[in-house]
Design brief:
The protein has 226 residues and is mainly alpha-helical. The chain contains seven helices and three strands. It has a three-stranded mixed beta sheet with strand order 1-3-2. The chain is elongated and about 65 Å long.
């Protein structure tokens, strides 16, 4: 939107971290995509086993296009696995499928943070789309009320990013636990899964930091203008 010392000091480092995290998750996923799991299970096989072992029978597994586009939709009760995950027997595929299954388990258990994140989706969409622009317009036009509204809206989006962290970390922890409990992977293979999921988690950490620092920047700019 515009450059200032707060942007350079607070936001730029987190953008660099985000770029690094994206590179790491792609390289780590690629590395373990070349290593097949010993039981020759595909991503969809692993997801099916883990859903069944947790008595979840109302979640449909679908294949979707793209890479690293995997996600679970609580609204539709659909677990969507990307092309490199759905039919692949790799450690990466099984790990990612298990992680998304972890979200389905969270939903089935009515886990609080996941429910809160789902509730915040509309707030996050509006806040991220309008908040920063309203805040900048308020600064440019010297309209404190517009600035405050923008900061408030963007704060809702930042809350979404922050709540996402425990949701993602918990899904990864569940993935490791249920893979081990169901003997889907060996301990050595689980080490690879941990690396893949840790790299993926860093993208969420970087996004949350970027959002928090961007909000802090707007607050500091508003205080300076006053």
């Amino acid at each position: 939107m515009f450059f200032d010392e707060y942007y350079l000091l607070l936001v730029v480092p987190t953008i660099i971290l985000s770029l690094w995290a994206q590179i790491m998750v792609k390289s780590t996923f690629s590395k373990y995509s070349k290593i097949a799991c010993s039981k020759k299970l595909t991503g969809v096989d692993a997801a099916t086993i883990l859903l069944r072992s947790n008595s979840i029978t109302d979640v449909k597994i679908e294949q979707i296009r793209g890479s690293l586009t995997d996600h679970y939709s609580p609204k539709d009760k659909k677990l969507r696995l990307s092309d490199p995950v759905y039919g692949s027997m790799s450690i990466s595929a099984v790990g990612v499928a298990a992680h998304e299954t972890g979200h389905a388990i969270q939903h089935a258990l009515h886990w609080g943070p996941l429910a809160l994140r789902s509730t915040l989706v509309p707030v996050a969409n509006i806040g991220s789309a309008l908040g920063p622009w309203l805040a900048v317009a308020g600064l440019a036009l010297s309209m404190p009320i517009l600035l405050n509204i923008g900061i408030f809206l963007f704060g809702g989006a930042v809350l979404f990013y922050v709540i996402t962290l425990p949701v993602e970390f918990n899904a990864s922890n569940r993935a490791i636990a249920i893979l081990r409990a169901n003997n889907v992977l060996t301990e050595q293979e689980l080490k690879g899964v941990k690396k893949v999921l840790t790299a993926a988690a860093m993208t969420y950490v970087a996004s949350a930091l970027t959002a928090v620092m961007s909000l802090l920047r707007l607050i500091l700019l508003s205080q300076r203008r006053r």
